[in-house]
Amino acid sequence: MIDIELLAKYPFLPEAREYVASIRIDELFSPIYEDVRDYAKNWIKSSFENIHLPFLRGEDRILAFYTAKLYLIAIQDPIVIQRFANHFRDSLESMLLSEEENIVDLVASGLGIDFRVAGEDIKRMNLEYRNYLVFRMIHFIDFVKSASRISGDAFRLINYPLKDGWVPVNKETFVKILREAFVRNFTREIEEKRGDAKILRRYVGNDIREILEIKDKFISRYSSEELGAVKSDAFPPCIKSILVKLRNGVNLPHQARFFLVTFLHRIGMSNEDILKLFATAPDFREDMTRYQIQHITGKISGKEYEVPKCETLRAYGLCVRDVYKDKLCQKDWMTHPLLYYKLKKEWLSKRSQSSE
Ligand code: SF4
Question: Does ligand 1 lie within 6 Å of residue 236's CB atom?
Answer without folding.
Answer: yes
